[in-house]
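Why should sequence recovery work at all? Because a backbone constrains its sequence more than one might expect. Tight turns favour small or flexible residues, buried strands favour hydrophobic ones, and helices have their own preferences. The token representation captures these environments compactly. In the example below, the structure is given first.
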């Protein structure tokens, strides 16, 4: 038995959001590592905004560890349309899931935040030391701040109760299983879906939001799942940790790359009346490499090829 498998052997782990995009990869990797019991609460049966529901769930499941991935989230459009529900759902879920975990004796809590919690204009690359240096980008601030409170809670609980909680900050994720609904999707699935539809319909032009000038960093979802589990195994500090690829690309260059990979031969038009979001987004990923040996392994082009193939297979 490897050291990694020995860590997970005999453990009972609950993964909130474990049936979702990122969560499904985390659950798969837990099984691969030989985790004895993996509990995945379903949203239809367990409303994680309800304290009593959470208590019943934890009492029944008796997890040693909780990996909290559950979130109400979406792209710029969804954030602009639903700021109140995005704030409330994420804040109350985080507060109650962590508090009830503490009360009911969960030994270890992995809180997964969001890059949207960073200030709008921090120095680039974003270092964890700059996490509190300003207000987040306005279009996703309610969501980002709600998830940011998980860090405050984790550090406060560690200080007062000795609760073993850590906080991770993944950058924008993509990959098979992502959400391709254009009303809620993030930039990569949205551009893939638009390029594929335009190619199939023979359309000569498609419209994308903004100017295309902002830059983003993307992390393949399976790499992120690996980073979460490495942190769960090896990291015990109250300080937050970035999870990313450390590679930056402009939205315009990303769109051109997806255009080439999908074979769409028409023109891309930029609707500059639509918001761009944060101007730049690139993480300093050195802490994750240093503290628990995480490094992204899937290149953007390879990850996009896998994602496009999954989308074309019609399983979305």
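From this structural description, the recovered sequence reads:
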């Amino acid at each position: 038995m490897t050291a990694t498998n020995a860590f997970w052997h005999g453990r009972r782990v609950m993964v909130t959001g474990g049936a979702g995009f990122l969560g499904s990869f985390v659950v798969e990797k837990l099984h691969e590592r030989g985790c004895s019991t993996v509990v995945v609460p379903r949203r239809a049966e367990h409303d994680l905004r309800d304290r009593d529901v959470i208590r019943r769930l934890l009492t029944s499941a008796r997890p040693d560890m909780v990996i909290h991935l559950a979130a109400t989230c979406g792209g710029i459009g969804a954030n602009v349309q639903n700021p109140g529900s995005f704030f409330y759902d994420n804040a109350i879920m985080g507060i109650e899931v962590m508090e009830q975990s503490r009360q009911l004796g969960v030994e270890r809590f992995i809180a997964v935040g969001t890059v949207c919690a960073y200030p709008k204009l921090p120095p680039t690359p974003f270092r964890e030391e700059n996490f509190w240096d300003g207000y987040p980008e306005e279009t996703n601030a309610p969501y980002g701040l709600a998830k940011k409170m998980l860090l405050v809670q984790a550090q406060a609980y560690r200080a007062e109760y000795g609760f073993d909680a850590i906080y991770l900050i993944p950058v924008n994720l993509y990959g098979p299983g992502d959400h391709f609904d254009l009303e809620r999707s993030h930039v990569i699935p949205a551009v893939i879906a638009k390029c594929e539809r335009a190619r199939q319909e023979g359309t000569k032009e498609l419209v994308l939001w903004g100017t295309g000038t902002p830059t983003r960093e993307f992390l393949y979802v399976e790499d992120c799942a690996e980073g979460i589990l490495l942190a769960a195994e090896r990291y015990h500090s109250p300080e937050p940790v970035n999870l990313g690829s450390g590679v930056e690309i402009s939205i315009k260059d990303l769109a051109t790359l997806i255009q080439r990979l999908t074979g769409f031969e028409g023109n891309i038009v930029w609707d500059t009346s639509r918001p761009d979001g944060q101007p730049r987004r690139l993480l300093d990923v050195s802490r994750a490499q240093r503290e628990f040996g995480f490094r992204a392994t899937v290149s953007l082009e390879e990850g996009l090829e896998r994602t496009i193939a999954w989308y074309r297979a019609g399983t979305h």
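A few observations help interpret the result. The mean pLDDT is 94.
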